[in-house]
Amino acid sequence: MEPITMLVLSAIWVGAASGTGFVLAVIAKRIHPGLSLKKLWLFYTVLMAFLVAIVFLIGWF
Prior knowledge:
The chain has helices at residues 3-31, 37-60. By secondary structure, the protein is mainly α. The chain has one domain (16-60). Helix 1 packs across helix 2 (37-60).
C-alpha cells in the first residue's frame, strides 16, 4: 500500500475508535455513574481499536 493510503486509513481508524469509545463510555457512565468517564473512554477506545485491528488482519489474509 502507498504511504498516503496508510496514513488516511490510520487517521480514520483512530478517529472511529475514539468516537465509538466515547459513545460507549457515555452509555456505560449512565449505567454506572460512579465510574470515571476518562477511564471508560480509554478502555473502550483501546477495545475498539483492537477489534478493528483484528478485522483488518482477517481481511488482509
